[in-house]
Specification:
globular, 2 domains, Rossmann fold, KDP operon transcriptional regulatory protein KdpE, Sig_transdc_resp-reg_receiver, alpha/beta
Length: 233
Amino acid sequence: MSDLDSLAPLRAPSHQRPLLGMTVLAVEDSRYASEALRLMCLRSGARIRRADCLGSARRHLSVYRPSVVIVDPGLPDGSGIDLIVEMARAAPRVGVILASSGDPGTRAAAMAAGADGFLDKPTLSLGRFQQEMLRHLPRDRCPAGPYALSEEVITPDPLAYRDDLEHVRSLLEDMPDPATHAYVTQFLLGVARAAGDDVLADAAAGLSGFGSEAGIARVLSLIETRLAARVAL
């Protein structure tokens, strides 16, 4: 494995941009969550790349080694926990491995798999994001001396939420198989909660149990209403 980022000069982090010089790989299938991470990295000085599935993440990691990898355990082609295990055992190891999920029950599994930390979704507080990143980094990659944490709250583009809803609609319209049904349920529940869409989150929670045609119909109706609106929030 080659680390292409090592070819670039290492820039010192500053109080305003505490993650300057870092490269983050976000293994995240939600466009809305990815947009939030992109904005937080941008504000913090870090570069970011995105992989929306395990296959894409493994292709990224075969070419370069990022400073930090943030992994969503619930991915369309498998469990992000398996990727965490692979990265934790790899030599050389990625510097920092973080799991990110709206399901607190995945924290123990992620940490047991080798993750260094855990980001609760939704992660929209810039200060909390920076703090979680910095506490796992070597001292020479952190700003010198004390600094004030940002109080900024990130607001992702609503169009990213629309993209996620269109993705869910495409998966539900053809009466998904049990595996797809389970994936869509956890995906939509997490995205709706992150976007503050309590009505759709409640409907997503009602999808539990394969074959709930009434539940699917309700979710699709709510999605259509949101996609028909100019702004999906």
